[in-house]
Structures are given as structure tokens and as C-alpha cells.
Amino acid sequence: MASSSNPDNMDTDPPGGLSIVVERNPPESRLQQLGVKSWPKWGCPTGKFPVKFDARQTCYLLKGKVRAHIKGSSETVEFGAGDLVVFPKGLSCTWDVLAAVDKYYKFDSS
Questions:
Q1: Do the beta carbons of residue 14 and residue 72 sit within 8 Å?
Q2: Residues 49, 101: contact at Cβ < 8 Å?
Q3: Can you give the residue ranges of the (S)-ureidoglycine aminohydrolase cupin domain (predicted)?
């Protein structure tokens, strides 16, 4: 196994190693496997607002477009209608909602 004299230079993830995972246009079979249509729904208008995830959240966007700015990082993640998105527990970000959002979502119990 290779080693580095300065492993700190290898960390490219946002603070705490938390990052948003976007699965673009997953197949219907994947959505059925997850039970997405049984999850609660939530929506919001355009605008900017801070979000902190106290639990891991998975959501599926029915409509809308969001640019998420991860706190303490220069990383920006865009997602929108048809995307399955996972936000890790402990992540803080600012949502810049470019088009009104309608989504299914669930929080992990762990």
C-alpha cells in the first residue's frame, strides 16, 4: 500500500468528509425498490435558505432545480427534477432554489 508523507493534502472532500450524492434519473425499478412514492412530500418556492441535516436524508425531486453550497467549502452541487439525492447526517449547506421544488423525502432512523 502506498503512503504519503503528508496525508492532509489528499483530503479533497468538504469539511468532515461530507458530500452530497446525486443519482441522475434513476430507473423506475430503483425508485420502486426504495419505496419512494410512499415517502412524505415536501415543496418550497424559489429563494435561498440554510439547511442542516441532523439525519441522513434521501430525496427524489419531482420538479425544481437547486444549487446547494456546502458550508465551509467551495463545493456547489446542482440537482433537479428526476434526481435522487442523498444528504449525509451533519451536512450544512445553503439551498439556492432556482425553480420551485416538489420532492419525496425520507430521513434514516440511524
A1: yes
A2: no
A3: 32-105
Give pLDDT tens digits for 22-56. 999 999 999 999 999 999 999 999 999 999 999 99
25 by Cβ neighbours in 10 Å (0-12 / 13-18 / 19+) ranks as exposed
Statement: the pTM of the whole predicted model exceeds 0.90: no
Cβ proximity of 65 and 81 under 8 Å: yes
Q: What are phi and psi of 59, to 5 degrees?
A: -140, 155
Q: How many whole angstroms separate alpha carbon 81 and alpha carbon 86?
A: 14
Rg (the chain; Cα; Å): 15
